[in-house]
Structures are given as C-alpha cells and as structure tokens.
Design brief:
The complex is a heterodimer of chains A (254) and B (503). Chain A has 254 residues and is mainly alpha-helical. Helices cover 73% and strands 2% of the residues of chain A. Chain A folds into two domains: 3-96; 100-253, no CATH class. Chain A has a two-stranded antiparallel sheet with strand order 1-2. Chain B has helices spanning 2-19, 22-40, 46-57, 63-80, 82-87, 97-108, 112-145, 150-168, 173-187, 213-229, 249-254, 256-271, 277-291, 303-327, 333-344, 355-378, 380-386, 391-407, 413-431, 437-459, 471-485, 489-502; strands at residues 190-191, 198-199. Chain B is built from 22 helices and two strands. By secondary structure, chain B is mostly helical. In chain B, helix 15 (333-344) packs across helix 20. The chains are: A mainly alpha (254), B mainly alpha (503). Chains A and B meet through helix 1, helix 2, helix 5, helix 6 and helix 9 of A and helix 9, helix 10, helix 18, helix 19 and helix 20 of B. Chain A: The chain crosses the membrane at residues 20-35, 55-82, 103-120, 126-143, 150-168, 205-225. Chain A: It comes from Tritonibacter horizontis.
Chain lengths: 254, 503
C-alpha cells in the first residue's frame, strides 16, 4: 500500500468515526422534532377559522415524513459507521480529528464573527464596526502564523462585549459610548498591525479597505437603493445622513 | 416552423428592448466584471457571486435589471474560474476543476495566452449553445408542463432534492439526502401553507413568516467559505502570460464538433435538477477523453480537453435555467440563488411564469456572453492581476458585503442571526462531507413540496394512490424509487456485475 492509499484509508476511517457522532446528533434531532411534531394536531380540527378535512391535510403530515425519514437515514448512517469501525475509533484522537491549531483558528474566526454580528452590527456605527472587523480579520489571518489572531480577537471581543453589556436594550442602541470605544480599538489595532504586520501591499491597503468599503456600501444602500441599513444613529453615519438630507439633497431637489 | 419564427421574433423584441436601454450596459458590464473577479479569485465561487448580488439587487431594483446583474455575474463567474486553473493550477470555482487538467500544462509550455483565448471562445460558444437550448426547450417543456398538477409538482420537488443529494455528495449518497431533508425541515418552520398553523417557531415571532431564503443562501454559501479561506496559504507561482490573448480560430474550426458535443453535454447535465457546472465539466471531459482520437493527450496540455470542460461548464448555465423557469426547480447551486431572487420579487417560476421573463432571460444571456467574450479578450490582463490578491484580504470584505446584503433584504438583525446560525451548521456539514446545495434546494422547494403534497391528499380524500394514478406522476414515483433503490448495496453490486458482463 503506497503513501497515498494509506492517507486515503486514514481519511476514510476518520470520516466514518465522525459519521458516528453526526449520526447520533441527527438521531437526537429527529427524535426531538418528532416529539415536537406530535404537538401538532394530526386529526380533523378547526383552527384559525379553517376546518381541516382529516389527517391528510394536517400540518404535521409532511414534518412527520421528513423527521421520520431523517431518523431512518441517521440510523442507516450509524450502521454504516459501526460496520466500518467508526464507533470503535469514535473516542480516539483519530475519530475526533482534534487539531489544536485548526480549532483555535476556527474558534478565533467564530468569536470574531459572533462579536461582530451580535455585538457590533446592532449597536455600533456600521462603518466603524465593519472597519474593525476587516482590520481584525486581515491582521489576524494574513501573513501571520501561530497565535497571530489573539490581539484581533481581543479587540473585537472587547468592542463587541462592551457594546453588548453596556447597551443591552434596544432603546440604548442610539448612544455613542460603544462607537467611541470601537473607534479607539480600531485606531489601536491599525497602529499595532502597521508595526507588526507582514510588509506587503496589503498592509498599506488595510486601513483604506477597512474604512472605504463599509462607507461606500452603507451610502449606496441608504441613499442609492434607499434601503434599511444597520444602526442609523451611529457616530459617523448619523453625520453623513444629516449632511446628505439637510445640505446636499436640497441642492439638486431645488 | 411557425413556432420557431414566433420564438425568434419574441427574442428579437426582447433583445432590442435590452440593447436600447443604457442602464443595461451599466448593470451588465459591472456584473460580468464582478462575476469574473469572483470566479478568478480562488475561494470565491459563482454561487457566492450570485448569492451576494441577490442580497444587493434582489429586491432593490426592478426585476428586469436584477436579472441582468445576476445572470451577468453567473456567466462571468463560471468563465472567470478558468484563470487560476490555467495560471495557478488552482480551480477558481469547482466548475473549472477539469479545466486545470489541460490548461495548466498548456501554460507551462508557454501557451498560456492561447489557452486563455481558447477558454474565452469556448465559454462564449458554450453559453450561446446553452442559451439556444433554453430558448427552444423551455417552450416545449412549458407546453408539456401545462398538464402538471399537484402530485407531479410534489414528486418533482422530491426528485430534485433526491437527485441533487445523490449527485452532489462527495461521500455517501445518504449524506446528500440527509442534507436535503434538513433543508426541507427548515422550510417547515412558520405558518403552514394550508391551515396557517404555526410550526417550530419556539415563540419567536420572526419565524412565523418562515425561514427567509437570502440569509440561508448567504449562510450556506458565504460563511463556510469565509471560515475555510481565512488561513495563511502560500499561493503557487503564477505562470507569466506572454503574447496576445486571442482566439485560435484554426483550433476552433478543427474542434468545432468537440465544442458542439460539449455544449450539448453541458446543457443536458445542467438541465438535471440540482446538478451544477462542475459535474458538467467533468462529464464532458470524460466523454471527450473516451471518444476523441487524441484522448491519450488529455491531461498533458490538450486543446481539445480544455475546450471540452470550458464549453460544457458555460453551456450548463442555459441548461440549469430550463428546470428553474419551467418547473421552479433550480438546475444548479447558482440557479438556486437566482430562484431566491425570483422568490423575493414574488415571481413564481413554473408553468405560470410570464413568457416575457423567459425571453428577457434569453436576451440577457446572449448579451452577457458577448460582454464576457469582449472582456475576456481585452481586459484579461486586469483579471490576471486580480489573481494576485490574497483571499485573506478579500474574504473579510466579502463578510461585510454578506452582512449588509443579508440585513437589507427585509428581516434586519434577525436575518443576520439566521445567517450566522446556518453558516455554522453549513461549515460543520462541509467538514463532515455533507453537501450544502441539497440543503439550500430543500429550503427553496420545501414550501412547494408541503403545499402540493397535502393538496393532492386533500383532493383525493387521503388516497395515496393519487400519486400513481396519473401517467406523469407514476413516472416520477418510479424515478424517485429507482433513485433510492439504486443506492442500495445490492443494486450497486448488480450494476457492477452487469457492467462486468458487457465489457
């Protein structure tokens, strides 16, 4: 058996071990939703002013079929995994496929995206929040090896965490404390990146891209397509919007 | 003859209408350019290009212009994938994986410009072949599909999900089916279409209106790519292109039968529900290798091999639009994103679609392929420069594009949370080798399946024989059952034995 065949066999063994776990998760999901579906009426009943004719028009018929089929397929997958030796290796390092470096990379990206979507987008000026995201991702994953993402994760975590904890209620989202905090962290991270980042064209372009793209996008969305945009009361966007409607638009409207 | 004349006249009107509108060129040039850029950058795909533009243009400009932007990006991205395949030996999109087999050896022989010129011409002719097929077959099928009722619609939706699950799965076919079932399950969330009974909302009012398509598309196609692509990679050495990028007319004339055959194969594969351009490219390449007199040269820098894959993957676009427009079933993952654009514009593709939309789609495809051809020949150096942009710089920008695109479609912050959740699940599914396309197709077709399945039962008083009593439905039941049984080990062994006997 040559090296390529050995690698393929190892990858397949790992996949079958992972299939064991995924089959168990799917079985649990299917059972949970079958139980949840049993709460929907399956016989003839009246609801929302409509009388159902019988079991065959029930809202539960198709979901029962879907989750029943999911359960069957998950059991088949479990069987395939067990027969291929996946269950035996499921708890081993091979089965779990644990790679600390890869896990920390995915964890860092996951945390950054979570802080951005849950913490920054609703509460912080979109231009500042997105600039921090772009800077953090380029800074953490372009040309840095090992633990390069620690500082960017901390910056995003601090900005997102502060916004989330200091302004949890929607009524507080218009306040600017988190905007200033994000701006401070953006400047700090940019300076750190400029000093420690890989010396290439991307390094010089990062601040331009980080501020330019969100600025362009939000202006195009808000004034070009007239669409809803996140956090209109943000530190920078509120000024842009005021200037546009009070000073610029009247110029061509009149 | 009268039918053909009517078709040509309708197309001519739609084309003239498009050509005289200056906005056409604004949307077309920018979207084809953007599409080629997305295709050329390894890590970004045609599906992602169409998905992101769906978020931007889906419901913000009239559908007529949105279609120009989305189809332009689709055509551009499938073609753009050939650049890194040829110059870096890294397929820009899955669709151009087969292109690398002969494109890169040609570039190493110093014939990179010739290879790029040929792929441009092959892609152009391929798109036109697919578009002509679309113009002809869509009407024939529309006439047939007038007889399609609820049982056939339900079974077709099921067939689309099963087929895409079977063909898109890298590992076991049941993983594709499981992905399709997860998509169907997601489509069950919200008010049911017959009795308006709330399902699986867990008290969250946002879910009452069901799972929105655009955040699912963004989450399923964009987020996993962003997570996967953000790693430090040394990009391979790019081969310098010397000389002018021009079509080699002698080679085109010589390989015209190959181009025609690849165009037909690409269109046919594209017309299969849920099967995309990558399959078309490989099938055409495989057929070309086995029937060509130069088959032994495939993989060593064969011009014929290059034309086989590039013509087929672009011809697949027209093919993929046939089931989308006729039946409302996307023929490929980017077509699923297009379906999302139709959905948010309240246009229901299928037998009741406005014929003007079909003619406009055909006219846009023709104009988009011309634009792609001109750009490919005259601005290729720009795209070669773009190849040098590392994905670690480009993907953060894609994340911001995805966020604002998803936010502005309608659901606001809730759509973003949904996108992130679907993205996390899709990334895990990718890791475990579950295909994502069947999930998205399941979400898109789930509502149709639920409604038509129950309507059939309602009209037949719960008699399940309604699914086999009509000839069309009986054929579809047979196909669905055959598709499932064909994956059983016993059936596979029997097929292998039969093949062994015939060889």
């Amino acid at each position: 058996m040559d090296r390529l065949e050995k690698d393929e066999a190892l990858a397949l063994a790992q996949l079958r071990a992972r299939d064991f776990w995924s089959a168990l998760v799917l079985i649990a999901i299917a059972l949970f939703f079958l139980w949840k579906t049993s709460g929907l009426s399956l016989g003839a009943h009246s609801g929302a002013g409509v009388s159902s004719a019988g079991w065959y028009t029930s809202a539960a018929v198709v979901p029962f079929g879907i989750f029943g089929a999911l359960l069957v397929l998950a059991l088949v997958l479990l069987g395939i995994s067990i027969r291929s030796g996946g269950a035996a290796q499921a708890m081993s390092g091979l089965g779990l496929g644990w790679n600390p470096q890869e896990a920390s990379r995915i964890g860092a990206i996951g945390l950054i995206l979570l802080c951005y979507i849950v913490g920054l987008v609703p509460r912080v000026d979109f231009i500042l929040g997105s600039a921090l995201l772009i800077t953090a991702l380029i800074c953490g994953f372009h040309g840095r090896a090992g633990r390069g993402a620690t500082v960017p994760v901390l910056a995003l975590g601090l900005a997102g965490g502060f916004a989330l904890l200091a302004y949890p209620q929607q009524s507080d989202w218009a306040q600017s404390g988190d905007d200033w905090m994000t701006l401070g962290l953006l400047i700090s991270l940019t300076v750190w990146h400029q000093y420690t980042g890989a010396r290439d064209r991307a390094l010089r372009l990062t601040p331009v891209l980080a501020l330019g793209l969100p600025l362009l996008l939000i202006c195009a969305m808000a004034f070009g397509f007239r669409q809803n945009v996140p956090n209109r009361s943000g530190l920078i966007f509120s000024k842009i919007e005021y200037t546009y409607y009070v000073h610029l638009r009247p110029l061509w409207r009149s | 003859m009268e039918f053909l004349f009517g078709q040509m006249l309708g197309f001519a009107w739609a084309f003239a209408d498009l050509v005289i509108d200056p906005w056409t060129y604004v949307y077309l040039i920018s979207s084809v350019f953007l599409g080629i850029v997305f295709g050329a950058l390894p890590g970004l795909t045609a599906t992602l290009a169409v998905t992101i533009l769906t978020g931007f243009f889906g419901n913000k400009i009239p559908l007529d212009y949105a279609l120009i932007a989305l189809l332009g990006a689709y055509v551009g991205a499938i073609y753009g994938g050939s650049y890194p395949s040829i110059l870096l030996n890294i397929p820009g999109t899955a669709a151009s994986a087969a292109t690398a087999m002969d494109g890169h050896p040609l570039a190493k022989q110093g014939r990179g410009a010739e290879a790029l010129g040929l792929t441009t011409t092959g892609s152009f002719i391929g798109t036109l072949v697919g578009t002509v097929a679309l113009l002809i077959f869509v009407w024939v099928l529309l006439l047939i599909s007038k007889n399609i009722a609820s049982p056939e619609k339900a079974l077709l939706a099921l067939f689309g999900i099963l087929l895409s699950g079977t063909l898109m799965s890298e590992d076991l076919a049941i993983k594709g089916w499981i992905a399709g079932l997860i998509g169907l399950a997601l489509a069950m969330v919200g008010m049911d279409p017959i009795l308006s009974e709330a399902r699986y909302t867990f008290g969250w009012s946002y879910l009452l209106s069901g799972i929105a398509v655009v955040p699912v598309l963004m989450g399923a196609f964009a987020v996993p790519q962003i997570i996967e692509g953000l790693r430090h990679l040394e990009v391979g050495k790019m081969i310098e292109v010397t000389g002018r990028i021009l079509p080699n007319m002698a080679a085109i004339r010589r390989y015209l039968p190959t181009i025609g055959r690849s165009g037909v194969i690409g269109t046919g594969v594209g017309a299969l529900p849920g099967v995309g351009e990558d399959v078309a490219g490989w099938v055409s390449y495989g057929v070309g290798k086995s029937v060509s007199a130069e088959g032994d040269k495939f993989g060593k820098g064969s011009l014929e091999g290059l034309l086989c894959s590039e013509t087929a993957n672009n011809a697949c676009i027209g093919g993929a639009l046939i089931p989308l427009l006729v039946l409302g079933i996307p023929g490929s993952p980017p077509a699923a994103a297009l379906m999302g654009a139709f959905k948010i514009n309240n246009v229901i593709p299928g037998p009741t679609i406005d014929p003007a939309i079909i003619l406009r789609v055909v006219a846009i495809m023709v104009l988009a392929s011309f634009t792609m051809f001109v750009m490919g020949l005259f601005t290729a150096r720009v795209f070669i420069k773009i190849l040098r942009v590392p994905q670690t710089v480009f993907l953060p920008l894609v994340m911001v594009l995805t966020t604002i695109g998803s936010f502005s479609v309608g659901g606001g912050l809730n759509d973003l949370y949904l996108m992130l959740g679907v993205g996390a699940v899709a990334y895990l599914m990718n890791l475990l080798k579950y295909p994502i396309a069947p999930l998205v197709i399941g979400v898109i077709l789930g509502g149709l399946f639920d409604e038509t399945f129950r309507r059939t039962l309602l009209l037949s008083d719960g008699d399940l024989l309604a699914f086999v009593s009509r000839p069309g439905a009986a054929i579809l039941v047979t196909l669905n059952v055959a598709l499932i049984l064909g994956q059983l080990p016993i059936a596979k062994r029997a097929l292998t034995r039969m093949k062994g006997r015939t060889v």
